[in-house]
Design brief:
By secondary structure, the chain is an alpha+beta fold. It has a single domain (about 5-140), classed as Sufe protein. Chain: A. About 45% of the residues lie in helices and about 15% in strands. It is built from four helices and three strands. A three-stranded antiparallel sheet has the order 1-2-3, covered by helices on one side. A hairpin with a 2-residue loop joins strand 2 and strand 3 (about 50-60). The longest helix is centred in the last third of the chain and has 21 residues, at about 120-140.
Length: about 150
C-alpha cells in the first residue's frame, strides 16, 4: 500500500473519528481499556442484537494511532455478525503480530499492516480491538446455549 495513501486514511480517521463519544444506553456492552506504556485510554461500547454488532462507539484520550484505529475498527466491525467480528479480530491481531492473516477481511484496517516496524505502536493499534474482544469473550462465557 502506498505510504501517502496509508497516512491519509489514518489521518482522516484521527481528525474525523467515526462514532466518537459514548451513548447513554444500558443495552450497550462496555469495556474500558488502557495502555500502561502511554496515555491511551479507550472506552468501547457495542450494541449487539440478533448476533450482529449493530452499533459501536468509543471515547477516551488516545494518540493518533489509537484514535484512528478505534475509528477504523468501528467502520470495519459495525454490521458484522459476532462470528465475522471474531474472525476479523483474530486476523487483525495476527497482522499486527506478523503472523499469517487473511487481508481480505480487514477492509481499511489493513493500513496498519506495517505497524510491526514500530513495536512500541503495536499496542496503540490493538487497544480498542482488545476492548471488543474482551466484550465478545465475556458474552461467549455468559452464553448458556453452549
Amino acid at each position: 500500500m502506498d505510504k501517502e495513501f496509508r497516512r491519509g486514511i489514518i489521518l482522516e480517521h484521527y481528525q474525523n473519528p467515526r462514532n466518537k463519544g459514548l451513548v447513554e444506553d444500558s443495552s450497550y456492552y462496555y469495556a474500558d481499556m488502557n495502555n500502561e506504556s502511554c496515555i491511551d485510554e479507550v472506552e468501547v461500547q457495542v450494541k449487539i442484537e440478533d448476533g450482529i454488532l449493530k452499533d459501536i462507539h468509543f471515547d477516551g484520550e488516545a494518540c493518533a494511532i489509537c484514535t484512528s484505529s478505534s475509528s477504523i475498527m468501528v467502520e470495519t466491525l459495525m454490521g458484522k455478525t459476532v462470528e465475522e467480528a471474531i474472525n476479523i479480530l483474530k486476523n487483525y491481531a495476527n497482522m499486527i503480530d506478523e503472523k499469517e492473516y487473511d487481508a481480505s477481511v480487514l477492509e481499511q484496517a489493513i493500513v496498519y499492516d506495517d505497524i510491526y516496524k514500530q513495536p512500541n505502536r503495536k499496542k496503540c493499534a490493538l487497544l480498542p480491538w482488545w476492548g471488543i474482544e474482551k466484550i465478545l469473550g465475556e458474552l461467549e462465557k455468559n452464553d448458556t446455549h453452549h
